[in-house]
Amino acid sequence: MKQLSDEILIEFSLGKPHAFQAVFDSFRMRIFYFVKNLIDDSLSAEEITSDTFVKLHRIHDKFNTFNNIQAFLFITARNASLDYLRRRERERQHKAELKAHEELGQEGVLPLFAETDIEANVLQYIYGEIEKLPPKSRLVFKLFYLEGKSVSDIANLMQISIQTVANQKSTALKLLRMKVLNRPGLFFMLLFWAVESVIRKKY
């Protein structure tokens, strides 16, 4: 590892570019291999290493000794690596749950579509997208899917034709489908949840 002179350390604390380059060259590979050994992913290790030096540069004026710089780099890299491992584990668990639900669905058992299994953030997303619908389409959607009213009842209530009700309902579904195309399974979840709401109201 390249040695850092007292002069370089002082210039680093003053924000001199050549001094930062010297610190970077001195520590980069050590930090990279330290992170890679923790997470076993070269590409992510490179990203974490780069982010670690960016964080160091942002507060360069707080460091003027070799030990302080070294401690900051390794502690920051370690913490970022642990965060990465936690995220990777959550993603692994999420994928395992999705796979299990898909397998259950293939066996004729409904996946987690019951209201008790819909996470709060999904419900919040659905409600939010419903509220963004055009006023007339939103009202028709709520009356039909959430309150269980018939098309003719809605037509009488809103004083519009049955065909207009059907058109507004179709418009609402198309708009919602467009909103959730990038969120696989959400549209079916939305419809199932709406139907379940109607059934509970009737019984």
TrEMBL record:
Entry annotated with the keyword Transcription regulation: yes
Family: Belongs to the sigma-70 factor family. ECF subfamily.
Organism this protein belongs to: Niastella soli
Protein known as: Sigma-70 family RNA polymerase sigma factor
Source superkingdom: Bacteria
Keyword Transcription regulation annotated: yes
Pfam families reported for this sequence: Sigma70_r2, Sigma70_r4_2
Domain RNA polymerase sigma-70 region: start-end pairs: 24-90
Record keywords, A-Z: Sigma factor, Transcription, Transcription regulation
